[in-house]
Each structure stands twice: as structure tokens, then as C-alpha cells.
From TrEMBL:
Residues 27-139 form the Gfo/Idh/MocA-like oxidoreductase N-terminal domain. It holds the Pfam family GFO_IDH_MocA. InterPro entries: Gfo/Idh/MocA-like_OxRdtase_N, Gfo/Idh/MocA_oxidoreduct, NAD(P)-bd_dom_sf. SUPFAM superfamilies: Glyceraldehyde-3-phosphate dehydrogenase-like, C-terminal domain, NAD(P)-binding Rossmann-fold domains. The keyword Oxidoreductase applies. This is Oxidoreductase, NAD-binding domain protein. GO terms for molecular function: nucleotide binding; oxidoreductase activity. The keyword Nucleus does not apply. Keywords: Oxidoreductase. Signal peptide: none annotated. Belongs to the Gfo/Idh/MocA family.
Length: 359
């Protein structure tokens, strides 16, 4: 037992030293202090010990309280204070979505690295303006905060999808009412971006819109990618307490089911001879392989929902880029969301056509 204890002790020591050596030296600023910032972004920033110099918000009262709540952080209502500070290398932006375009534009012009929460802007025209600004002024690093791209299950799924050719997929994204904003831009951008991230550029092959008197919106979409076609049900006609998100993908190898980024399962495809499914002849138990599942029993960082949903990795990836610890392949920059904005523009055309017919 002494030998085993020594091995375990050495492993724990190496692991601890590795974490202690992971030090960030550049300075950062955060623009916005809403619920998303406080609940999802700030805990990760604090865990990583990113040197946060400023938190910028629109409320003078909040700005005055920030320094008391977050030691060593200056509260301000002036974005210009951050832009003029040469010691600040990276800026996290998670403010009111309507202000994202303006703030992102100013941060890019200031030559600072930018992490911009979704949506970075409201339409294709604004997105082109931002990308043109990047070309004109240059930019160190830009990450658009669409966290599902960074989820652990996504990394596994991407690798697996390279093995078997995709046939079709079905995506259900169901929430409750969303009266505070644009459901397409604020909510449905998540599943739409996710399928373009996994399967590439798509066109809207068919679309159906349903609205109710109480303000719910449901979209039934058929998207055609280069090598796969999918059906999507995007709706605010359900419940926030029991919100659902499930992606099922049929491939030559079998079926993948991704449930809320929390669980990824794979079922191998059953064999058939001359079109006869052998599973109907031989009653074997169905095989389900668990590829990923968050362990709710062990309270470690890796089993935290902030990690499984991708928030942790997106912030860490941005910070590592700013610190020049990893190569920036521009996979998460503004250009990477061109396809999803193109799809949303197509969907809006369908919605306008339907509205015109109703009128």
C-alpha cells in the first residue's frame, strides 16, 4: 500500500503544481454586469484568476459598489476609460444585446482583444461592418461567445462525426415565452449556430412559422447542408422550468443523441440483409454507448454545468489566446458566424412573406 500511496501522492502533487503554474498576466476588463455576467462569466474569470481591472456598467450606483464587491476591480460607467488604458489587453463584452455592435466596434478600433457575447450584432449588415472594421484596424483576437461550440460533448461529437457520414438530423429547442427580446436573434441563434458549426453552411429548404395570441413563436425549419439535411423545431411555446434541447443525428455508423449538452449517447446501426432488419429476426438487446455525461455526484470543476455548457472553455480559450498560449485559428471569430446570420436573414424573409399573406 505504501508504494501505491506514493504514486497517488506524486500524481496529486504534479496535478497541483500544474494548476498553480497556470498563471495569467495580461489585464482584462468586463463590460456588462447582468445576470449572465454574474452567474456564468465572472465565476470563471475569478476561478482562472484573470487579472480583471475594470467592470463597466451603465449604473453609477452599481459602479460604486463594484470595488467593494470585487477586490482590486475598478467600477466605471465609462467605456472610454477601458479603451484608453494601454494596460488592458482583453475585453469581455456581455451587455445589452442592442449595444453589442457599438461596443464591439469601439473595442476593435482600440486594438484590444475582444470576447463578445451573442449576439455580436443584429443583422448581416452590422456583421459586415464589424468584419470590415477588423480588416481596417486589425485585431489581436476575437471570440464570439456561442458557448455550445466549446462544450465537452461538442468536442467528442465533432470527432465522431468525421468517422461516419451523416444522413439527417432532428433538433428540438423548446423554451417558455420570451417577451424581453427577439427570440430568433437572442435564443434560436444557439441551435442555428450549432448546426452550422457542426455541418457547415446551410440553406433554408422549407420554413413554417406559428405565432399565438400570448406571444409565443414556433419555427419549423428544414435546413440543407452540403452533406446532410436536418429538421429543426424552435419554439417559445413550452416552459422555462422544463426547457428542452435535444439533437439527434443519424449517420452510417449509427445514431447520436445529444441532450442539453449534458449527455451524449451513441447507438450503433443495426445490421440488415437484403433490406431485412436483423433486429426483427434476432431479438437482441439494444446497445447504447455513453460518450459523455456530467457526473452530478462528484463536485469537481469538470462536473460543473458551467463546464458542460461550454462557458468555462470559451473564456479560457479567449484568455489563452490573449496570453499567446495557443494559436488563434480564427475558428470562433466574427467571420465564423456569417453562416448563421445568413440563415437568420433567410428565415426572416420567410416570416415576412407569411406575415404579408396573413395581412
Amino acid at each position: 500500500m505504501g508504494y501505491i500511496d506514493e504514486i497517488i501522492g506524486r500524481y496529486k502533487s504534479v496535478r497541483s503544481i500544474r494548476k498553480l503554474n497556470h498563471i495569467y498576466t495580461q489585464r482584462y476588463a468586463l463590460v456588462g454586469l447582468g445576470n449572465h455576467c454574474v452567474s456564468n462569466l465572472l465565476p470563471v474569470i475569478q476561478y482562472l484568476q484573470l487579472p480583471l481591472k475594470y467592470i463597466c456598467c451603465t449604473s453609477e450606483k452599481k459602479a460604486g459598489l463594484i470595488s467593494q464587491k470585487y477586490k482590486g476591480v475598478k467600477g466605471t460607467t465609462s467605456l472610454q476609460d477601458i479603451l484608453n488604458d494601454d494596460t488592458v489587453s482583453g475585453v469581455f463584452v456581455a451587455a445589452n444585446p442592442h449595444s453589442h455592435f457599438h461596443i464591439a466596434n469601439e473595442v476593435i478600433k482600440a486594438g484590444k482583444s475582444l470576447f463578445i457575447e451573442k449576439p455580436p450584432c443584429e443583422n448581416e449588415r452590422e456583421l459586415k461592418s464589424l468584419t470590415d472594421t477588423v480588416k481596417l484596424y486589425g485585431s489581436k483576437h476575437i471570440v464570439v461567445g456561442l458557448q455550445r461550440r466549446f462544450a465537452p460533448a461538442t468536442q467528442i461529437l465533432q470527432k465522431r462525426l468525421r468517422i461516419g457520414r451523416g444522413r439527417h438530423y432532428h433538433y428540438r429547442y423548446l423554451t417558455g415565452l420570451y417577451p424581453e427580446g427577439d427570440a430568433l436573434l437572442d435564443l434560436f441563434i444557439h441551435p442555428l449556430d450549432y448546426v452550422t458549426f457542426l455541418f457547415g453552411k446551410a440553406r433554408v429548404k422549407a420554413a413554417e412559422e406559428m405565432r399565438s395570441k400570448d406571444g409565443t413563436l414556433t419555427l419549423f425549419l428544414m435546413l440543407e447542408h452540403q452533406s446532410i439535411t436536418g429538421m429543426l423545431e424552435l419554439s417559445t411555446d413550452y416552459s422555462w422550468q422544463d426547457a428542452q434541447e435535444q439533437l439527434s443525428i443519424s449517420t452510417d455508423k449509427g445514431q447520436y443523441v445529444l441532450d442539453r449538452m449534458e449527455r451524449l449517447d451513441f447507438s450503433p446501426r443495426h445490421s440488415a440483409i437484403w433490406g431485412i432488419p436483423l433486429e426483427k429476426v434476432f431479438q437482441n438487446n439494444a446497445t447504447v454507448v455513453s460518450l459523455y455525461g456530467r457526473n452530478g455526484f462528484v463536485p469537481t470543476v469538470g462536473n460543473n454545468q458551467i463546464v458542460s455548457q461550454g462557458f468555462f472553455s470559451e473564456i479560457q480559450a479567449f484568455a489563452d489566446m490573449v496570453e499567446n498560449r495557443c494559436e488563434d485559428n480564427h475558428a470562433f471569430c466574427l467571420e465564423s458566424v456569417k453562416h448563421v446570420y445568413s440563415i437568420m436573414a433567410e428565415i426572416k424573409k420567410y416570416m415576412n412573406i407569411i406575415d404579408d399573406h396573413i395581412l
